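Example record

The entry below shows one chain as it appears in the dataset: sequence first, then structure tokens.
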Amino acid sequence: MATATIDELMTMQGQHLGTSEWVLVDQAMIDKFADATGDHQFIHVNPEAAKMTPFGGTIAHGFLTLSLFPMLFEKSDAPHPAGIRMGINYGGNKVRFLAPVRSGKRVRGQFRQIELVEKRPGQYQQTLEFTVEIEGEDKPALIAEWISQFFV
């Protein structure tokens, strides 16, 4: 995992930080997410019924795709803050689900730093643009502005 000092990260405003590995979104992952959230809509969990939709099969929940943020960030070459003690999700400014992730597709994350500010001594707030690309497709699954805070 690459690391960068706070001073180095502060100079990266507006810059692309990194790209993740490809991650498979299969039916087992979708089913586990459905069980965890209670969202068992047929377009996610019933392959036979989902074949009759414009999607042609099951698709991942939008919130499943969004929830891949931490895993994709960890599997990326984006620099992590050196000396981080703890990180928390703070929220999102904007989330747009642009294309469905069909079961069996691979996705990866692209990360661009929008802003990094010091909230208090040792506490920073980072806003990243998070784009989830679908392998072999032109349109991304989602684009989000995600806010995290971390403590050093």
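Notes for this example: The helical segments are 6-10, 27-37, 42-45, 47-50, 62-67, 69-74. The beta strands are 3-4, 16-19, 23-25, 80-81, 86-97, 105-120, 123-134, 142-151.
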